[in-house]
Amino acid sequence: MHIALLSRNRNLYSTRRLVEAAEQRGHTARVVDTLRCYMSITSHHPSIHYKGEEIEHFDAVIPRIGASVTFYGCALLRQFEMMGTYVINDNVSITRSRDKLRSLQLLSRKGLGLPITGFAHSPDDIPDLITMVKGAPLVIKLLEGTQGIGVVLAETNQAAESVIQAFMGMKANIMVQEYIKEARGADIRCFVIGDKVVASMKRQAADGEFRSNLHRGGTASVIRITPEERSTAIRAAKAMGLRVAGVDLLRSNHGPVIMEVNSSPGLQGIESATGLDIAGMIIEHIEKNAVPARKAPPKPKG
Ligand code: ADP
């Protein structure tokens, strides 16, 4: 197979590992810079051009689209989909997963465990919003933050009210969430491929920090997850429509609650914590599921 990796940087660990895994399994892989692709949108011959030439045929596309280029990256991915190319995660699922509120709304429809979460527009509604999520301490989150940036713990109702007012004043979209204190700064990353959790790790926040993101100094270790956590992760990825996903859970007093579902989960932390060849498993999934474009007419999703 000939596989495209949509990535801005060929030196990133995940990008390198996916190329390596594809080549090890006898495929060819090309790293394609998402922002250097451009598209011709026509009914007869929709195409993608890259640095002056029409891009070659790919049997599969692995999108690794950074949060800052979601809009352009998803438009490009959609173009591949319109051309009938197999994509491991499609543009609609990625767009969904990038909006934390939209994701939680979809997950709630499936009855999955979530922290109590509130969303409001008017500053007049802040006091009731705080009561709704059971009062301080509570967590305030920017809807489109990543790597723990834009996630704030407010210890008192007064602090919560001022921070929410400040964010609203800046027209930033935020949600307010019950603080899962009993998780004690730890979360669980479940790596889902297809309908399986292929690896999981616990991330523990650094001392004095409640956010367990590895980018915020968290440390990773292997963990055995419960059957309930496993099925929650699988159902969450499915609800989002993602074939490859990093599902982050917290252990709460009322069972696993989902923090978020990541559509481009990093490979470095999970491969080094578990010693597993996750990149190889992603390529294997593509081998089993990518149907050559010529045999399967495209079913475009808008
Ligand atoms: P990001 O997408 O920026 O990583 P998250 O929503 O995953 O944002 O939050 C970052 C981290 O902060 C989580 O991994 C978790 O450790 C901690 N955290 C977030 N929300 C809560 C919460 N409601 N209760 C307890 N800890 C939380």
TrEMBL record:
GO biological process: SOS response; translation
Ranges in coiled-coil conformation: none
Listed GO MF terms: ATP binding; metal ion binding; ribosomal S6-glutamic acid ligase activity
One of the Pfam families matching this protein, by short name: RimK
GO cellular component labels: cytoplasm
UniProt keyword list: ATP-binding, Ligase, Magnesium, Manganese, Metal-binding, Nucleotide-binding, Protein biosynthesis
Domain ATP-grasp: 104-287
The protein's required cofactors: Mn(2+); Mg(2+)
HAMAP family reported in the protein's UniProt record: RimK
Record-given protein name: ATP-grasp domain-containing protein
Protein's organism: marine sediment metagenome
Upper taxonomic lineage: unclassified sequences, metagenomes, ecological metagenomes
